[in-house]
Amino acid sequence: MMDEAKRLRKRVDQFYGFVVHWLPELYSGISTPSSDGGNNDLDEGLNIVEDTFADSPATSFGWEKLNTEDAESMKKLRVDSIQSSSSKLSLRSLDDEPETSAESQLLTKDQLKYLVRSLPSITVGHMMELVYSTSVHGISLKTLYRNFEDFDTTALIVVRDENHRAFGAFLSHPPAISESFYGTGECLLFSFITEKKVKTYKWSGENSFFIKGSKTSLTVGGGLGVLGLWLDEDLYHGRTHACSTFNNELLSENEDFICTGLEAWAFV
């Protein structure tokens, strides 16, 4: 019985390590993606989880076989996680007015407040610095990349289309030219359904097609030949699709849209 309990504890530790690495929004740290987008590591992590639940003693004998020490350890892990999440939520609710380096020309103060409240907890306590704006820097993806070169932070992309609808993406890493997709599960897409209602689409776990930058376009989310959010090199033409990365709906009213304004913020 003791050997079975030790075996289960080892597998729980493996699963816990996987969760900490691939769901960093539950904890205080940020995962650093590999140069190839992290797909290989993700596959290895999923294999660990599948193996864990395939032949776990808990599956064969029932959870009542856990000894007191194991049960208390798992209970403590659950309580610590809940307390940590509650603490972060409390900090978010107290931060009514996000601190920004400039006033947004695309979102009202209330919209910005609603949006920031729905972002991952790693943004709590950080000021929002306006790094790029089409109204200030012109329309150029190249300029957006260049302006982010000195930043190593999370980023927020806000787009406004020809129908005055606001939407965009939260990025775990700054937008940059890359050979493959990069980023972590903290990335998400969002769209304002009404003036005071924002809908966010978090990582589904189905793939890791988070961020992909090239000289001619910027992409967030993808799968099965479609892209969640796509912007061209002039930041003028854009496209949105329902994608498996975030299981999102169309961010704009139509798949193809005209970008009438774009802002990119860094959390510093």
TrEMBL record:
SMART domains: TLDc
UniProt keyword annotation of DNA-binding present: no
Localization (cell): Mitochondrion
InterPro entries: TLDc_dom
Keyword set, alphabetical order: Mitochondrion
Any single Pfam family the record assigns to this protein: TLD
Record's keyword annotation contains Mitochondrion: yes
GO biological process, one term: response to oxidative stress
Any one cellular-component term (Gene Ontology): nucleus
Domain TLDc as annotated: residue spans: 105-268
PROSITE patterns per the UniProt record, alphabetical: TLDC (PS51886)
Family, per entry: Belongs to the OXR1 family.
Protein name: Oxidation resistance protein 1
